[in-house]
Amino acid sequence: MRLLLWVAATWLAVCAAAHPGRGAGGEQPLLRIAVERTVHAVDDAARVKASPLILGLTGENAEWVDVEFFHPNPSGDDWIVLQSPVLCTAPIKTGKGSLKLQLINQREDFSFALFSGGLLAPKLIAVSNKVAFVNPKAPVYPRLAQGKSWNEMTVTWTSGYDITEAVPFVEWGEKGGRQFLAPAGTLTFDKNSMCGAPARTVGWRHPGYIHTSYLKDLWPDSLYTYRLGHRLMNGTRIWSKSYSFKASPYPGQDSLQRVVIFGDMGKAEADGSNEFNNFQPGSLNTTYQIIRDLENIDMVVHIGDICYANGYLSQWDQFTAQVELIASTVPYMIGSGNHERDWPGTGSFYGNLDSGGECGVPAQTMFYTPAENRAKFWYATDYGMFRFCIAHTEEDWRPGTEQYKFIEQCLSSVDRQKQPWLVFLAHRVLGYSSCAYYESEGTFEEPMGREALQELWQKYKVDLAFYGHVHSYERTCPVYQSQCVVNASNHYSGPFQATTHVVVGGAGASLSEFTTSKIQWSHFTDFDHGFVKLTAFNHSSLLFEYKKSRDGDVYDHFTISRDYRDILACSVDNCPRTTLAS
């Protein structure tokens, strides 16, 4: 059996077995622990030792630590706990042994504790020495994102420096050229910003300070270098290591452009220990496959259910550390899901407890999006020949709402001669899914989803619609009003017929079962972890690939070939009015 763990900055520690379920990841495992029964039962003969004492001496944000332990009266209910961040370990089955665990810089010292007594009667037996990063406040985990204009890149990062201690900035410029300094704004949030437990109680941990800098007037496709900086009040400058990125192409630019799309990834521990929702190995496999192919990827879109912190704030550090190699190199665009936003009485469309009391605050603070209102989380972003319209399913999308107006404006305002590839994205399945849960509801979709939006998709000739929430992969035929307008294929050419809907929520979280019924519009399903890669070769040719996270190989694919006149051509329910006048 594997255990999972949360630790406060006190002696209390809790663990629980993972029990993931559809979308939600099941009951929050940490709630099962009898925290109120925790007692000190220190045994002078027991010991825990951690080394090395100082981490990050050569600038690393993550480092391996050796933990040696001894318990004179061992039992199967013993485990080792990391105090400060969220981390998990396997239970200790012997009285003496060692563990090798990876720690990341989370702005605090660390120590390890030996507990016994199981989940219902936890007893503290011994505590190790402290270990610490050489600079716990150092700038870490940069996250790039597209700005509000095509030639702007934003850089967001985390540090332990409040603006009263140090001034944040970014040093950046074209590779090999002159370097400039760009100022950064600073945000954070406190416990009172959380909407409920556990985020407001046992799950609370200060998120540090979140800085964002705007790098503007970029040259298309140019390579830039950057590093994060803080100027202390005595004039000393604290630096991160150097990173690099390639600027976005001009909208409509005819060049090779590649975008990876997935949802519901979560996080896992690289040292083999378990985090509290037990999402490994899917999460790490997806991360590693994207890193392996990073030279052939220009942007990533993660459509909701980001890290499943569920109110345990330390998980956001763990996630941003996991994706650092990706997010520091290419824009990492996110959408919001139920595990980021939902909480009763806070304006979310669904009144469930899935965010663990976060009610969207950590997500909208930790990651930048070019939304007019970052709390609403819907926005458009252009990348060369692509237009992406990213909706927010945790707020009402139906006709007459503010979000419906945004969706129509985003779809209708694109110049298809310059940007032929129009993509709609949302977390919950607003289109089509043969997930067993949706079948049980009798909808094969999120209720009121396609009924509200399918006329827009058809009218504005949306090529692809992507969803997460269901933890598996599925591709439909080009479908409208639950009917295949044309048969599914591995190659489409000529005029647009209907939107192809894709569920790609299998990036890491526990998998979702499909119905056993035969669904006419469902073409390809895969009960496995994976992600999608889109490659636009030019204005007339698009490649779609579904890859499994376990090996990075392609298991489903198709191409679209068409000219601009094919986009202008009429199909079902999208012909504009004409006149008999000459």
TrEMBL record:
Protein name per the record: Purple acid phosphatase
Domain Purple acid phosphatase Fn3-like: from-to ranges: 92-135
GO molecular function, one term: acid phosphatase activity
Gene Ontology cellular component annotations, sorted alphabetically: extracellular region
Purple acid phosphatase N-terminal domain: residues covered: 142-246
Residues covered by the Purple acid phosphatase C-terminal domain: 498-557
Catalytic activity: a phosphate monoester + H2O = an alcohol + phosphate
Key words of the record: Glycoprotein, Hydrolase, Secreted, Signal
Top class in the EC scheme: hydrolase
Oligomer and partners: Homodimer.
Enzyme Commission number(s) of this protein: 3.1.3.2
Location, primary (coarse class): secreted
Domain Calcineurin-like phosphoesterase: 258-473
Native organism: Panicum miliaceum (Proso millet)
Subcellular location field: Secreted
One Pfam family matching this protein: Metallophos
Family (UniProt): Belongs to the metallophosphoesterase superfamily. Purple acid phosphatase family.
Region forming the signal peptide: 1-17
